Write the C-alpha cells for this entry.
Amino acid sequence: MNDKIWLSSPHMGGGEMKYVQEAYDTNWVAPLGKNVNMFEDKLADFSGASYASALSSGTSAIHLALVLLGVGQGDEVIVQSFTFSASANPVTYVGATPVFVDSEEDTWNMCPDTLKKAIEDRMAKGKVPKAIIPVHLYGMPAKMDKIIQVADEYNIPIIEDAAEALGSSYKNKKMGTWGHLGVLSFNGNKIITTSGGGALLSDDKELIEKSRFLATQARDAAPHYEHSHIGFNYRMSNILAGIGCGQMEVLNSHIEKRRNNNVWYRELLKNSKGVKFQEEPNGDYYSNYWLSSICIDPQKCGITREELRLKFEEANIESRPLWKPMHLQPVFKDFPFYSTGVSEQLFKDGLCLPSGSNLSSAERDRIASVLKETLVIN
Ligand SMILES: *Cc1c(COP(=O)(O)O)cnc(C)c1O
C-alpha cells in the first residue's frame, strides 16, 4: 500500500529546533519567555497588526475575544454558519447564544446582506447582537469592507476568525487585521503549526495586554496571589512558541506552495465543466489557499462528491467534504439561522482536496491519476 496522502499535514522548515533548543538550554520551559515574545513580534510584523498575543489555541483566542468584548450570559453573537465548530463553540462557553448567518456565492463566506437582515430581525425581536464572527474559510477572505459597513451601522464589534487565513489578504490588508480582534490558529493542520496554538491580533494595545493578563490566570499585582477577575490558563508555551518562530521563517514559502497546488488543480481540471473551484472573485482577494476546494455537479461530472471521496480513499488519499454548516449540526440545530441556501449546497457537493505545502510530485501524480479516472476531460 502507498503511504497516506493527507489533506494538510505539518511541514517543518528546519529552523524550529534552534529556538526550541535555546528555550531548553536556558530553562525557559514555561508559558512565557523569549520565544513567546519573539513569536508575537513576528506575527504582528507579518500581519501588520500593532499587537499580537500568543495563546494555547485558536479556540481559546475566540473565547478570550468574547470575554474581552464583554459578551456574557443571555447575549447573542452572530457567527458564520459555514465554518468549523470552533468558531461557534466559545459563544456557548460565555453563556451566549450563537445566531448563524449563511454564506454568499462568490467567497463562500458570510453574506453581508443576510448579516444585515439578521441584525435587523434580532433587534426587532429585542436584542442587539454583541459581536459578529466572520470566517475566511479555507483561506478565502470574506468581504470584510461590506461586513464592517453593516457592523458599524449598528455599532457591533467584529471578531475575525482568520484561523485558516494567515497570509491571506483583501484589498492589500491582511486577514486578521480587519476586525477589532483577529484570531489565528497554529493547530497541526494549519498553514503553519506549533502542534497546537493560537493568537489574537489587534491594534488596541489595552485589549491585547488584557488578553495576556486574563490568559495567565488574571493575577493582580501583589506578592501573594490576588484576583479581581476570573482568569484562564490560555498562554502559549515558550517551547511551542519556538516552533512558531521557526515556522514564521517558512510561512511565505508555504503560502506560495499552497497557491501553487491550487493552480495545479485548476489546470488539471480546466476542461471539466461540472467542477467549480472556490476562487478569488477578483484582484482584491488574495487567498493563501490553505485548502483547495471544489464543488462538483453530479449531473455534469457523472460522479457524486461522495463517490469521488471514496475513490481517493481507495488510493489511500485523504479528502474531506466541505465543512458541515453549523445550523445543520445536531448540537446547534435549535439556534436561529438566516439562510441563503449557499452553504447547504456547498456541503452537499463540495470536497477539500489534498493541499499540503509538502505534497511531493510523486504524490501529485497519485492524486492526478484518481482525478484522471473520474473528473478530467481533455
Ligand atoms: C482551526 C480552526 C479554529 C480553531 O483553532 P484551534 O487552534 O484548533 O483551536 C477556529 N476556527 C476555524 C475556522 C478553524 O479552522
The chain is about 35% helix and 15% strand. The mean pLDDT is 97. Residues 57-59, 83-84, 86-87, 135, 161, 163-164, 185, 187, 198 surround pyridoxal-5'-phosphate (CB under 6 Å). The first strand starts at residue 51 and ends at 55.
